[in-house]
Specification:
The chain has 18 helices and two strands. The chain has a two-stranded antiparallel sheet with strand order 1-2. It is an all-alpha fold and about 525 residues long. It has a single domain, classed as Formate dehydrogenase/DMSO reductase fold.
Amino acid sequence: MSAIHPDEATAIGLVRPGSVRERDPVTIDGTVTSDPTQRPPLVLGDHDFHSVTETVCGWIQQKTPRWWMAAFSVSASVAGFGTLMILYLIITGVGVWGLNNPMTWGWAIVNFVWWVGIGHAGTLISAILCLFKQKWRVSINRFAEAMTIFAVICAGTFPGIHVGRVWMAWMLFPIPNSNSIWPNFRSPLLWDVFAVGTYFTVSLLFWYMGMIPDIATLRDRCVKMMKVPVTVGPMWAPHPLPDFVKRATTFQLPMYKVGAMAYSVLALGWRFSSRHWWNYEKAYILLAGVATPLVLSVHSVVSFDFAVSIVPGWHTTIFPPYFVAGAIFSGFAMVLTLLIPARELYPGMKDFVTARTLENMCKIITVTGSMVGFAYITEFFISWYGGNPYEQGAFIQRAFGQYWWAYAAMMFCNVLSPHVFWFKWCRTTPWFIFGMSIIVNIGMWFERFVIVSSLSTDYMPSSWAYYSPTFVDIMTFVGTLGIFMTLFLLFCRFLPMLPISEVKNVLHAAHAHLHPHDDHSKGGH
């Protein structure tokens, strides 16, 4: 039993919201401690219910930052160029890719698996950590859920364009055509459609339902601001303005009316009633229970793309757990890649995304990275112990063949680099964590490339070939990065990045009845 309640520690001895906080070499921002009797605070600063709402909604209702406009322009341009590459592919054919015989799978399947893996952290943080009552997740779950949706959108692009004839992509679904030809239900590529489609649907519901109370808050604020008149008078007019000038230059800002209408539609009539909250809490925990098996099932099904084949190096039962661990590994790294810059750019976010949150995520990356490294070693052991010469040859080719550089990059990024987080400085220094998260994501992409590159050395040495991506391959992948960042920037600009109601639940004021001797006169709504 802890000596100090985490919500009580939030309001004790901490500085005001938004002020500059000195970095302590031991506790960093006051949330990193190795003493089990001291529960670190979940929210820094002297926040109450009102200040939480003002801070989170202020990021949306403030004037658009210049950095956001610059980042959005770049990402939208990259996304547009990637879309042009996809149109060029559709018009010309898959011959514009670097595919050859036997390397019939190239960057498309690599990018598909990579994007699906990145989307795994959202369900893990939102569903599994919710079921385990891990309150530190409240500052990152909305980020992770949004990232999941956008990553799956990018992943879904590749199966559609990889079929060659994009207008026949509807045959991926169980719809018979005029010749009564059904899709092959024994094909793992068809399983992907059901697995990823289900994952996207449940994740979208989970993400959207969690935002409904916060969207209703934005709706009410826009309605209130819509009623506030704005007076814009000429510079030469005397002050205070004469009545006839004031009447001629007073108007209501239309953007608040548009925002009120949009948020009203998205809020679905939410009125903060006790019945609404009761239904919300029940539905949220049910969705968390439904989404939890998806963390294990989706990437297991994706791994069957490889595991059910008879290609040496692929036909192994270790792929499902190996892929799930790798997906969580890369997903948490991508959350850190997005979260750390936002933490620096948005004022007051450091009060909610604390050093303890970053440290916990680094620990999870270290654990899952160790699991991935163990899987790499197990693969080599199985190939040696099984005595299959084709299997042994496939792994020798991976490590020492023509793609040795990709295998070396994979081992360095995924096996060696995460272990720097055993050191406290490494897992509590934001700029270092940001760099390591990028290295992890690069390593996970190389992992998928190394697996797919096994096709280049099949059973017949006379047909071996070297695969090289073309300009269209590269720019299509870069274009999906632009699509991902464009969607993420739009999310940051128009939707709440933190769950307001969940953050309020971890404040000291939300548990005032547990500490009746404390003075809560400063709390408010």
